[in-house]
Amino acid sequence: VTPRRGTFDERVRRTAVVGLTACVVVFAVGLALAFADVPASRGLLAAGIVGITVLPVVNVVAGLVEEIRKRDWAFAIAAIAVLAILAYNVLAALR
Amino acid sequence: VLALEVLTLLAGVVAGALGAMLGLGGGIFLVPFIQLILGQPLGTAAGVSLVTVIGTSLAVSTTLAGRELINLRLALVMQLFTSLGATTGAALVAAHVISDVTAERVFGITAVVIAMVMVQRLEKRNVLHDTTIDIGRFGARFHDEESGAPIAYRLRRTPLAFGVSYAAGMVSTITGVGGGILIVPVLNSLCGVPIRAAAATSTLIIGVTAVPGVLARFPREDPGAPALAAAAVLGVLLGSRLALKYFAGVPVRSLKLLLAVILGGVGLWYLVRVTL
Q1: Which of B90, B207, B215 sits opposite A59 (nearest CB)?
Q2: What are the start-end ranges of the H helices in chain B?
Q3: ipTM of this complex prediction, to 2 decimal places
Q4: Which residue is closest to B229 within chain A, CA to CA?
Q5: How far apart are CA B210 and CA B231, in angstroms?
Q6: Residue B100 in contact with partner chain A when CB distance is under 8 A
Q7: A43 at the B interface (CB within 8 A)?
Q8: Residues B210-234: pLDDT tens digits?
Q9: Which residue is closest to B48 within chain A, CA to CA?
Q10: Using one digit for the tens of pLDDT, what is the confidence trace for B146-176?
Q11: Could you tell me if A89 and B90 are in contact, meaning their C-beta atoms sit under 8 angstroms apart?
């Protein structure tokens, strides 16, 4: 089933397809390098983990855009609150 | 080391397949595997598992997008509660307030109770065939592939749904499972959401819920953890893809039964483990 263009479903799908494909490539190459004992593999695998962790956040942003488009402010505020909580967690992890 | 990653990849395939069918992240299968079979500490198991939860969440939402099963509004508000719960869990772990034994005991009891509720309500479908009916603020309509008809549903016991979301977020960070294991049965058995819609909405929620958990639990000091996580993610993605391609039409009753058996089994496993 292909979602209609410009819908929330389509944005979620596009984010997941593009982001996941990139992460899969990074993980596969990183693992291959790790098996070959190449030191650069560690940085590549770490980049893949950071990349995959960012993708759900992009989905929340897509949800926010959708609710702003519908002018449903209660749900838009819910999305902003989720993003604020995630930002707090990033700051806590960096501390 | 290489054997660990190959085993994790294979376990990921199984976890991804079961997770995709049931709306779970697969962590419920991976955490015990990494802990029990691979002998890794809970922190490593939880961190690796939560990365794969995000992978499953994204892979499943790719396939489900367009089927109108994902209830965005419900997901957004539930994400608010799960991420608050996950943040609380991260703070409790950092402050050493909850021991691993306590966390596993709470999780075991919850899983067994939910499994029993699911078995008791095995025949309940939660669907309204009159699609003109008021679905409320958090209900939705979609085309049910199993019955071939458009159906509607309304969210019941809203405070319970949000309360369980908070608890699921906390459990997710503490134990390393996605939280779908609590969200899907409660949404389906107690809040009136059809199992496929509950599973699809849950997959979107658990991806976001896992983010605070990964940030707090991923063992950055363990040099082997990134390779283990990469192997698990690749396995989980392969497994979820296979499941959605070949098992999408599994009857609802079988899905519920499978979920109840897995919940009960894993719950008992946790309880026996902390008792012995």
Answers
A1: B207
A2: 2-22, 27-32, 42-64, 72-94, 100-120, 158-175, 180-189, 195-217, 225-246, 252-275
A3: 0.88
A4: A49
A5: 18
A6: no
A7: no
A8: 999 999 888 888 888 899 999 999 9
A9: A49
A10: 677 788 888 889 899 999 999 999 988 988 8
A11: yes
In contact, B263 and B79? CB cutoff 8 Å: no
Length of chain A: 95
Determine the distance in angstroms separating the CA of B70 from the nearest CA of chain A, rounded to an integer. 8
> Is A3 in Cβ contact with B80 (below 8 Å)?
no
Contact B51 A19 (CB under 8 A): no
- Give the span between the Cα atoms of A37 and A27, in whole angstroms: 15
Range of weakest confidence among B210-219, B221-230, B245-254, B259-268: B245-254
Looking at the complex, report in whole angstroms how far the Cα of residue A62 sits from the nearest Cα belonging to chain B.
10
The average pLDDT across B60-66 equals 70
A51 close to B (CB below 8 A): no
d(CA B120, CA B129): 23
Cβ-Cβ contacts under 8 Å between A and B: the total is 150
Q: What is the mean pLDDT of residues B231-256?
A: 82
Q: The whole model's pTM is what?
A: 0.83
